[in-house]
Amino acid sequence: MKKRPHTGSNAKRPPPKPHFAKPRPKKPPERPPAPVRLRYLLFHKPYEVLCQFTPEGGKACLKDFVNVPGIYPCGRLDWDSEGLVLLTNDGPLIESLLAPRSKLAKVYWAQVEGVPDEKALAALRNGVVIEGKATLPARVERFPKGDSLPPRSVPIRFRKNAPTSWLKLSIVEGRNRQVRKMTAAVGHPTLRLIRHSIGPFTLDGLEPGKWRELDAHEVRLKLSTFPARP
After folding, report:
1. To which H or E segment does residue 181 belong?
2. How do residues 43-102 score in pLDDT, each as one tens digit?
3. Cα(79)–Cα(47) distance, rounded to whole angstroms?
4. Please, how many CA atoms are within 13 Å of residue 144, restricted to the half-sphere of its CB?
5. Pairing between strand 49-50 and 190-198?
6. How many Cβ atoms from other residues are within 10 Å of residue 186's Cβ?
7. Are 49 and 61 a contacting pair, CB within 8 Å?
8. How far apart are CA 104 and CA 191, in angstroms?
9. Of 9, 24, 70, 171, which is most buried with the most CB atoms under 10 A?
10. Is 78 a catalytic residue?
């Protein structure tokens, strides 16, 4: 009598077939992100333009004149002032130029009411008190060339019996509306204000509403050779 094969739980089973995992495809090595191209633009801000790229209150802003993404103004210039604005995406440069220790001189041309005498000019040079704090010493001189500048897009108020004159001021501070407050403190309110330069960068060759670009080497070279104080 033949024995039937044992089919219980103890029966020998064939060994499992070896499992070979499929090789996973190798990920290509991650490429480092491309370096950001640093941009440096000099812009001649016209009168009644906000010094920001976001429109506000229906007013014109930088976006209406400069179509370059990712850049920001290095410092501010009031809506009712004209002149030079440095635009860049170089964050460390913005931080260093705006730091109080940088003492980077800025030159303004100011058309003021009346004709300041030598006493008023001396006060501006030595420092005047605005909002309880004296301004730092500044360079101040008469600027007769201002009379030959192109007129503002919106003419200043004209009074037949009130003469005006131009001053050139070089300051190292950046307090709110500082030049206007300085001239008002000596009895000669500012009627028109143009920022001609920020350190080694100037308006020369730039018409209102126009901009030009500098390369990084030119920026560094200009800053390295520019005297820190006016």
Report:
1. helix 178-185
2. 999 999 999 999 999 999 999 999 999 999 999 999 999 999 999 999 999 998 888 777
3. 7
4. 0
5. unpaired
6. 19
7. yes
8. 25
9. 171
10. yes
